[in-house]
Write a structure and sequence with these properties.
Strand content: 5-15%
Shape: globular
Largest sheet: 4 strands, parallel
Number of helices: 8
Strand order of the largest sheet: 2-1-3-4
Bound molecules: zinc ion, manganese (II) ion
Radius of gyration: 18 Å
Number of strands: 4
CATH class: Alpha Beta
Distance between the termini: 22 Å
Length: 252
């Protein structure tokens, strides 16, 4: 954990070519039953598990994220959902990448846990890479991944025996709740899950948001079938599949 290291220790690890992982999350409602930090806690846990296996460094997480959207995070109107504007996030990512590069990091992984961050992370990477190129730094490689994309078809069938609703509707639902139950049981209260309807959104976005389309709890599909076992299974899979994918992508 970079935040627990001294600078000389960090420096010597970077000089040896260490991979740096940066968890990206949000501060966002996760229903009545789960905490606002869920999107940051999960990629941080995955990063830790991955780092242990490939001797990587986990940088402090970015605990605020891009504006929550109704179809993937319930929307920005919930009290506690505390978001960044897209331009702020782009500049934050750009500044961080340039700093890591300036200190000698050449292999950086952006480990995302909040879907809405995606395009802004991509833009921040692009702006940073252009800037680094102008400065003569052309040997930096950056990976951007949403950790849940590493869930296998087999696991999806076990975790969602009645059908997988898609990652966007899995906000505060079975997938995130199961992972939180296995990693941070004290931050989940299953008795507060409301078995509401699955969110049913039209194939467009409307502004202002149609609050009738969003389940009042803020969870986009029912989390009642979440379990510790499902969480452990997914976590085990991320720990097994993500490290080799990272090494392969970096040509190691
Ligand atoms: Zn989430
Ligand atoms: Mn989110």
């Amino acid at each position: 954990m970079m935040g627990e290291m001294t600078w000389p220790d960090y420096k010597s690890r970077v000089e040896k070519g260490a991979i740096v992982l940066v968890p990206f999350g949000s501060t966002e409602q996760h229903g009545y039953h789960m905490c606002l930090g869920t999107d940051s806690l999960l990629p941080t846990a995955v990063s830790r598990a991955v780092a242990e296996q490939i001797d990587a460094i986990v940088a402090p997480a970015v605990n605020y994220g891009a504006r929550s959207q109704p179809k993937s995070g319930g929307g920005n109107h919930y009290i506690g959902t505390t978001s960044l504007s897209g331009v702020t996030l782009i500049h934050l990512v750009r500044d961080m990448i340039v700093e890591f590069a300036r200190h000698g990091v050449r292999r950086l992984v952006l480990m995302n846990g909040h879907m809405e961050n995606g395009p802004f992370l991509a833009e921040g990477v692009d702006v940073a890479m252009r800037e680094l190129k102008l400065e003569g730094i052309t040997d930096m490689t950056i990976l951007k991944l949403d950790y849940y994309e590493f869930t296998s078809e087999e696991t999806l069938k076990i975790v969602f025996p009645d059908g997988f609703p898609g990652w966007a509707l899995e906000h505060a639902a079975v997938f995130e709740t199961s992972l939180m139950m296995s990693l941070h049981p004290g931050m989940v209260d299953l008795s507060r899950v409301r078995e509401e309807r699955l969110a049913n959104f039209p194939p467009y976005d409307i502004y202002p948001a149609d609050l009738e389309a969003i389940p009042p709890s803020g969870a986009l599909s029912p989390a009642g079938s979440a379990s510790v076992e499902k969480g452990e299974r997914m976590m085990k899979e991320y720990a097994a599949l993500i490290p080799p994918a990272i090494l392969k992508a970096f040509g190691l």
